[in-house]
Structure formats: structure tokens, C-alpha cells
Predict the structure.
Amino acid sequence: MLRIIIAGLLGGLAMYAWSAVAHIATPLGEAGFSTMPNEAAVTSALKASLGNQPGRLYLFPAAAAGTPNLPGPSGLVVYLDGPNDMSPKALGEEAAVQLAEGLLAAFLLSVTALSGYLGRVLFVSGLGLVAVLSSNPSLGIWYKFPTEYVGATMFIDLVGYVVAGLVIAAKKPKVMMSCLARAAARATDAPNTATAA
């Protein structure tokens, strides 16, 4: 049981490290986002209308059920009365989620009869495929999230499971984690090296 817990925690850490690399060292984290024209006027109008509301999700126009095709623009707004900083609390919550995913994947793998390394990696990767298909495409289908955003998010999440699978399925997960950590360090150093050059 201890080995399963260790493998799951290391797999979750590997997933978290990959997510950090994907968002910091690649364009994937910004895929699908656009700069709002005349942002100051829009944010002033939101502030005047919504005031000091806590973080809430607004769908507009507010149509009654069964009332299709209302005139005018439509959209989805996540409103926060203040900045959305990358706080230690948010980073900790994200890490906790991915550690939980790693532990769950390790437990599910432990109750299978798979013995080969590749088969175990594919099993964890398959869990990731189910996870990314369960919600991400629906954001594009129903709420019209940009295809670039949905695709990038699915790619980041799926690769996260593959990376976690490489660690969880290993006979010596600490060694595999060390190898992946060195690769991640090289990837995050590459943009800085290019900038300095």
C-alpha cells in the first residue's frame, strides 16, 4: 500500500510539474485567449453593474428555459471584484487536485492485472483520455469556448496523465520522477537561455 501511495504522489507531482512547464514555457497556457478591445470601458460597466459580488459565473442574456434565439450578443463571464492573482493558495489547491488524481490513478492501476510497464502506462493514459473527454469538449459545444482553448487544455491534461503514468507504472518511481524533473528543468531554462542570447 505504501508503494502505491508513493507512486501516486510522485505521479501527481509529475503531472503538476508538466502543467507548470506547459503554462510557463510554451504557448499552450494562452491558447484561445484574446485581448478585449476597449477593456477599460467594459470593466467599468461590469463594476458599475455587478459591484462587489464574489466570484460568480454569469451567462447572458438571461433567457428563460425554452426561449431560443434572443436578440443581441451572448456570452459567459466569470466576474471577480479584484485581481485574479497566481496566489500560493491557488497553486496549492491545483497541486492538491493533481496529487489526488495521481493517487486515484495509482489505486485504480493497483487493482488491475496488468504486469507490463507499457500496459500500465497506457492504462493511466486511458484514464486521462476519459477525463479530458468528459468535460472539455462540452465547453466548446455548449458555451462556444474557442477551439484553440479547448484543444490546448485537453492536450495539457492528457499529457499530464501520460507523464504521471510513466512515473506511477515504473518499478522505481523515484528514479523516473528524477529523470522527468531534470527534463522539466531543461525545458523551463530554454526560454531564458534564448532570451539572454
